[in-house]
């Protein structure tokens, strides 16, 4: 039995090594935030293979078998547990009012909401999104290179450290009973994957490089979260945007009228929580908006 498990582990490691090496031959986009792109593309291909073979079918079955009310209650339960981590990071970022609000969310939903199964608090208290990766960004630590993690998916050096730190206070990871803890990890993972099925349809409809698409959407969203929807000016984004814009030849000054618009192309509206670069790329905007809900 032990020998069989060892062989299975060896095969998994071998498969991961093969797809990483294969990723080195994939087309490169030369994004300065992704210096490890050959490695990351290999890990992405491995994750995509595992997802198509195992994770996605399980999530689709879960989606069909579970009643909508049950799925909502499961999402509420894990959201309530996440609010514990959110509250801790609120105070680490000196957001005291928000911290007390999120702490009250945990208290209300854990009691009146029957252990978080019913989101009672959202009627009066806003749900926030904070983690230790954002806390590090709040204190001026850059994200570092983009990193695609096996199974876990998109991340960065900073966010990877943040995930490790958050796990130290997460009620799920601190559950003493090993079997219960593993079941919670599994249920949370399947539930998250089922929630991404809708936003994935948006991505499937775009003729793009899937790897670059996911990377750019992730980096833009994380940048927006760190700065609470108001990220600083990014020269690289401007350069990329200028490359995407069609070249135009200005008319002679004498023929221009003050009231005449110089361009009929209107960008997507920029919301408070959406970076400017997302508004200039409709495909990224749609995926970003869907995955942020």
What does this structure look like?
It is a single chain. This protein has about 290 residues and is mainly α. Helix content is about 60%, strand content about 5%. The protein contains eleven helices and two strands. A two-stranded antiparallel sheet has the order 1-2. Helix 3 packs antiparallel against helix 4. The protein starts with a helix and ends with a helix. The N terminus and C terminus are likely disordered.
Major beta-sheet overview = 2 strands, antiparallel
- Global structural class: mainly alpha
Number of separate strands: 2
The sequence of SSEs as H and E is HHHHHEEHHHHHH
Radius of gyration: 22 Å
Strand order of the largest sheet: 1-2
What key attributes describe this structure?
293 residues, mainly alpha, two-stranded antiparallel sheet, 11 helices, globular, disordered N terminus, disordered C terminus
SSE map:
Blueprint lengths: L1 H22 L13 H29 L2 H25 L3 H16 L20 H7 L7 E4 L3 E4 H10 L11 H27 L5 H17 L8 H10 L31 H4 L2 H11 L1
Antiparallel strand pairs: 1-2
What would a concise description of this structure say?
With 293 residues, the protein is mainly alpha-helical.
